[in-house]
Amino acid sequence: METRDQKSCIEAGFLDNALVLIAVLDEKGRVISWNHAAETITGYSRDEVVGSANIWKHLYPDKEYRRGVTQKIADILKTKNYFENLETVIRTRSGDSHTILWNTKTILEAGMPRTIAVGMDVTTEREATLFRNSIIDNANVLIAVLDPKGTVQVWNKAAEVITGYSAGEVIGRHDIWKKIYPDTVYRRSVTQKISQVITEHNSFENIETTIHTKNGEERILSWNTRQIGTGGTLHEIAIGRDITDQRKAEEALVAYMTEMTMRLKQPVSIVSSTLLESAQLMKNGLLDKDETIMVFEGQARNAAQIEANIQEFQKAIVEKNKSIPEAYRKFLEG
Q1: Model pTM?
Q2: Domains detected in the chain
Q3: For 9-27, what is each residue's pLDDT tens digit?
């Protein structure tokens, strides 16, 4: 049969080898037990901590922050004698900051109340989350994450800029689609198209739709989606790239080609006809040398004027449409 001393040794060994910070406190907040993980995480040894309550001033050196943490704990303890998943940032002995997730439980030991505080170091996870969120927030494409019910969970800064709707207006709701697709018929056609593609492929790529922003402006977006999640719960990541300027630039190039074709058709036809007539006259011996030179010089001037008109029109197109792709821009400026 296990004796009390043996049980105490087992418990002490368990506490000391746990991978989380474990501190046992008396009713005055003094540390009774400080395990090995607590030493590793904080940098403060058991001998420096046990028997005193000063460790909290070391871990929370900023008075205002410490006061805020203390008040938060006091507010929680008003309704229950423990707290769960309380996240705070401690300062280690070396000056590093660590994010700790705290859970507590109150027990009686030999008739005396004891508080067991368990702190899990989630610094790496929080840094990874912050890094991931930073990437999402600083991406120059609209990123929205939807839960299985279509409720928006993530709405990044680019989504706010492109649509005009803030994260506060969108997250936790699923009516943003009615706002950016206000026309019922168009929204239904978009929904049907997306549903058909998803049924076949579980995702879609480069589907273009026209949205209405909060201020009523129309923007063209190219959408891609992916499913993420484990344990049977799938979320959709919707990525929308604003291609409005690109489409305008393409339309400008098409307009340029059409306009130039119309502008060139008549003068080029005149030059061509004049040269053919002159060639026929020369064959029949009806043009002398001086007259031939005059014809060639005249048509050279006409060709030069056509070239000047083309260059002027190209310059106007480039200046008006800043989003023309670089390759086309160089061609037009050449």
Answers
A1: 0.55
A2: 4-123 (3.30.450.20), 139-242 (3.30.450.20), 246-333 (no CATH)
A3: 434 444 555 689 999 998 8
